[in-house]
Amino acid sequence: MKGxxxxxxxxxxxxxxxxxxxxxGRVLGREGEGFRIALSTLDTGRISLAAGAVxxxxxxxxxxxxxxxxxxxxxxxxxxxxxxxxLAAMKLDLEAARLLTYRAAWKKAKGEAYTLEASLAKxxxxxxxxxxxxxxxxxxxxxxxxxxxxxxxxxRDARILTLYEGTSEVQKLIIGAHLTGMRAF
Length: 185
Ligand SMILES: Cc1cc2nc3c(=O)[nH]c(=O)nc-3n(C[C@H](O)[C@H](O)[C@H](O)COP(=O)(O)OP(=O)(O)OC[C@H]3O[C@@H](n4cnc5c(N)ncnc54)[C@H](O)[C@@H]3O)c2cc1C
Known about the structure:
By secondary structure, the chain is mainly α. It has a single domain (43-180), classed as Butyryl-CoA Dehydrogenase, subunit A, domain 3 (Up-down Bundle). The chain is 60% helix and 2% strand. The chain has helices at residues 34-54, 57-69, 81-109, 115-140, 150-158, 168-180; strands at residues 71-72, 75-76. It is elongated. The two termini are 29 Å apart. The protein binds flavin-adenine dinucleotide. The site of flavin-adenine dinucleotide has 11 residues, from helix 6.
């Protein structure tokens, strides 16, 4: 599919399955359990995706370097309190996202149920990556709006994170179902 906002280095296509016949020896799992198995793979995918969101730490590294180098009013902009507020908020978002991601991966590695932890990590990390990318452009000022600066690509790439592998709304429904024991979907 052409014309994506981000993830331009990865091809995206649609797969349609219609009337497919699978020989018995090729069936993965048990018959009738496909949907459950497919959904269970999403839990693992959500941890990977949260880890991908944490990789937006690059946006903080770039912003730190730029803020130390860029001078306005006779000072590096890193010395301005409001620029430091952006940097501190980015750091906080990234650290929290990292820890939630590690916890979900740790529970999976121990063989424990981790659906809730994977959803918490995916929801927080993907929303955090968008906040971080937004702030990175803010720190770069007008230059951040140009593709020449990597933060512009990070901003575009962050946007998909709250959509695939279950949208943020869907993660909230999963978390809500765990908390209440009642499914809203
Ligand atoms: C670049 C890209 C790559 C992708 N890769 C894959 C892939 O590898 N494999 C794959 O299977 N899919 C993939 N997708 C599809 C992606 O997972 C879906 O786009 C995503 O799950 C949202 O589904 P939808 O687009 O049908 O949106 P919709 O379901 O139409 O949702 C639209 C809006 O309504 C909200 N909504 C929907 N249902 C509810 C509900 N019950 N309660 C509350 N809110 C709701 C959603 O959260 C969203 O905000 C990819 C999409 C993109 C853009």
